[in-house]
Design brief:
- This protein is elongated.
- It is of the alpha+beta class.
- It is built from two helices and 13 strands.
- A four-stranded antiparallel beta sheet has the order 11-12-7-13, covered by helices on one side. Strands 1-6-5 form a three-stranded antiparallel beta sheet, covered by helices on one side.
- 16% of the residues lie in helices and 40% in strands.
Length: 184
């Protein structure tokens, strides 16, 4: 028998229900917390479930393994763990004359010496100003955090000659020597 098993750990704020329909070959696996919920339909005849109260883990055992179940459960685990993790990116500003502020609607406004301001709307992420030149973007979804960070980074990328602009924290920047200053 070619078994395939996977374990899901449920944090303390998450709960789950298993719903078996009488005239159906499927079980509904309903997972919920105070803010999120989702459900997955599982076939009855390929599955055995075990719940461990000590570790708060559910082990799902499939009696039949194919590529679909392997890909599906890896994708499902990634989605589930995104709800229990927080992702963040730090952005640093270097230069003079930069004006940055955030309003109530979580909109970041940037002014970099241009004639108009740039607005970054981050609906699904939170933005916190750590210092005058350091912004922390954090949220539950990794794609939304990276998208907000990259949109800020595109507005004023690092100038390789002066080193001024926006960069990610821990990003290595190499300055290029200018033509005139290299001979003096």
């Amino acid at each position: 028998m070619n078994n395939f098993s996977t374990k899901l750990y449920f944090p303390s704020l998450w709960k789950f229900l298993l719903i078996n329909k009488k005239n159906s070959n499927n079980t509904v696996f309903y997972i919920y917390s105070s803010t999120y919920f989702f459900f997955v339909t599982l076939p009855n005849f390929f599955l055995r479930l075990q719940f461990d109260k000590q570790s708060n883990c559910v082990e799902l055992i499939f009696f039949y393994k194919n590529n679909f179940y392997g890909i599906f459960w890896n994708f499902f685990k990634n989605i589930f763990f995104q709800f229990s993790r927080i992702f963040f990116k730090k952005l640093k500003f270097k230069g003079k004359g930069y004006y940055i502020y955030k309003n109530i609607r979580n909109t970041v406004a940037l002014q970099f010496g241009y004639s108009h301001s740039f607005y970054i709307y981050s609906y699904y992420t939170n933005v916190k100003f750590m210092t005058k030149t350091l912004i922390l973007i954090f949220g539950v979804n990794k794609k939304n955090v990276l998208k907000a960070g990259k949109s800020l980074f595109k507005i004023k990328p690092i100038n390789i000659f002066t080193g001024k602009g926006i960069r990610f924290s821990r990003q290595i920047i190499y300055k290029k020597t200018g033509k005139i200053s290299s001979y003096r």
